[in-house]
Amino acid sequence: MKTLLTTIVCSLVFALASLAQSPPPAQSPPSVPGMSPGVQAPAAAASAQSPVASVPPGQQPAAPGATAAVALSPAPVGAQSPVTAAAATSPSPAASPTSEAPTGGFLSGNWLIDKFHRGGPVMWPILIVSIIALTVVIERCIWWTGRWFRRDPKRIEKVFTAIENGDTAEASRLSRGSRDPVLRMMWNGLNHQHASLQGALQVAAGIEIKRAGRFLVVMDTLVTLAPLLGLLGTVTGLIRSFSFLGNEELAVQAVTGGIAEALIATACGLGIAIFSLIPFNFFTSRVSNLEFELQTAATNLEVMLEAQHKEREGVTIESGTPSSATRSSI
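^ that's the sequence the OP posted. Answer follows.
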């Protein structure tokens, strides 16, 4: 049982931690301001070349000792240089596609952690209470589901039939090794009927009821404690809000933050109490039903065994009493 509780607690903590994580923000590739990526390569290639001056036909270069310049013919009308064509065809920086960060939806940006921090320091005990409540509810659901599969009403009827027929050995054999709480109680009573049948039944029934009512006290405490913690968070949030009323610059922001803290803590406390109250009442009713079943089976077993014992005593008295004993001695 301790291993099961530890496993459930670790699983809940891991699930909450993984649920609160947010994806890392997407980063856009670096770009030169004022220039699109398609223009950067042609412009760099064009800037690496030396400029060429156009010389009118029939004239010589101004500097005879300078590097020989190639005379270019005037470009035809409508023709464009490769650099100009690349710049004209490349998209503008405003029209270039930009990578946008994906929106994570309801839980994006660590929504749970953000609300947790806004709730104030009271959220830490509320978190511990919520984990304990969820663990107890899961463990009790597993136990009662297993108990429902362990029920064996047909074998109980066979045990009562064997007792009615006077075969207590067969009834003890049928009830031995069963996982049904009623059959285990009956087996304990049949094995100790010569010493104290009623005491043995009471001890066995008490053990079964204690197993069924395990952690109900914890759930009852959590149902009462969670709203009180929420109320404590409300008080601390209001105290924080009113403490900033003297400062005019931070009054509005601080007051709204304190009210948000009060409301978040109250909502969490009430939510945990509501979540724990319904399973608590359900498990309490199941324990009451089990107690009634155990009492009914114990009463039937006592009545049947007492009837068998009286019947045996009556047969023994009738067969062992001499006829002269009924006469008067006077």
